[in-house]
Amino acid sequence: MEGEAITQFTRIAELPGCVRAAGMPDLHSGRGPIGAAFAFEERVLPYLVGGDAGCGVLLFATTASPRAVDKLERRVRAAMDEDPLADCDPIEVFDACWHEGAQGLAKVANVPDDIAAMAERERVLDLGPSGDPAAYRDPSHGRALGSIGSGNHFAEITRVTEVRDEAAADVMGLEKGGLVALVHTGSRGLGAQIGRRYGDATLTGAAIDVYLADLAGAVRFAQANRFLVACRLLRALSALRRDKVRGAIDIVHNTIRREDIAGRAVWIHRKGAAPASRGEATVVLGSRGAPSWVLVGSGHEGALASVAHGAGRRMTRTEARAKLATRYKRAELGRTAHGGRIVCDDADLLYEEHPDAYKPIEPVVASLVDEGLAAPIASLVPLVTVKQ
């Protein structure tokens, strides 16, 4: 682990009101430590969530038939080039998703019928009411809905390659050889705007409720964003129908929730840490050259019922561009060692997000399992990865 990440983690753990802190195996530094969960009594620190409030992972396990990777790549490119909300009012889109998440899309005029039918059955997250959207009502947010964003965000069609627990996998709709739509993204510019508004404040009393209402809106917007990106992947798989989806997992790894730890109610702040209460399905993300893993949590109190959200970086973006540009030719970056394809037109991003820039996923998952935080269910190997 990076020394700076441990220093950041320690600094937060020593703040007044922090009663427990848990660093994940992928702990790394950012504005605050990433890959960590903190429990605070009677205070909330918005900057620990960061500028991508509501970021998380959506998984749709499908009944889609296998296709040649070349054909699948072409279909994914075509689906990602289409804007399903092109005929929609961006303010109407924003308001609907702020208040109701993905389900709100079913009520927006001119949303394609197949997406609206899928959205009708999505759950509205139980977060309490969203705040007043007036301060954030910007057409750019509505127009951004359904986009992946930069950084480590991605959309991916994967194949289930290994199943460790067949009974649990079956409940989740996962079967060996099955195709899965996997999306990692968040609230786009909306989360950044909320982050700027609250800055480095430490909130207490009624101010907590005001922030959490805004956070609820951002989390629901992020959920809708993941859903819409996933719909584009389902369209590429000819699976944009409920009877083609065997199961779904939707988790948020940048948020704050009220939870009970050791018999007392605390505010759990998660940044790059996925919730993993007992029996809760979760996903630990690999890279485009390594599998992601579906796990089921144990509710480990020492780890604040959390697990890592990914493998974690071993190179900064600047280091990756400098080192990997001399190691790999640009033409080599469109494919992975296991035959996967990459849809990305940004050369810098291809180097920054290269598998070599990330730690191996296997030791991260093994450490979570060995410490009793979660149990492995199935691995997902990327076939087509979209980076934007």
Task: Write up this protein.
With 388 residues, the protein is of the alpha+beta class. The protein has one domain: Alpha-Beta Complex (tRNA-splicing ligase RtcB), CATH 3.90.1860.10. The chain has 11 helices and 14 strands. Strand 7 and strand 8 form a beta hairpin. Helix 2 crosses helix 8, helix 3 packs across helix 8 and helix 7 runs antiparallel to helix 8. The two termini are 28 Å apart.
- Mean pLDDT over all positions: 94
What overall form do the CA principal axes indicate?
globular
What is the CATH T-level topology? tRNA-splicing ligase RtcB
The second-level CATH architecture is Alpha-Beta Complex
Provide the fold topology.
Layout: H1 3-13, E1 18-28, E2 34-40, E3 56-62, H2 69-81, H3 90-100, H4 113-120, H5 139-144, E4 154-163, H6 166-171, E5 179-185, H7 188-198, H8 206-236, E6 245-252, E7 254-261, E8 264-271, E9 273-275, E10 281-284, E11 292-297, E12 306-308, H9 317-324, E13 341-343, H10 347-352, H11 361-370, E14 374-386
Helix pairs in contact: 2-8, 3-8, 7-8
Put the structure in a nutshell.
The chain is of the alpha+beta class. It has helices at residues 3-13, 69-81, 90-100, 113-120, 139-144, 166-171, 188-198, 206-236, 317-324, 347-352, 361-370; strands at residues 18-28, 34-40, 56-62, 154-163, 179-185, 245-252, 254-261, 264-271, 273-275, 281-284, 292-297, 306-308, 341-343, 374-386.
Structure keywords:
four-stranded antiparallel beta sheet; tRNA-splicing ligase RtcB; 11 helices; alpha+beta
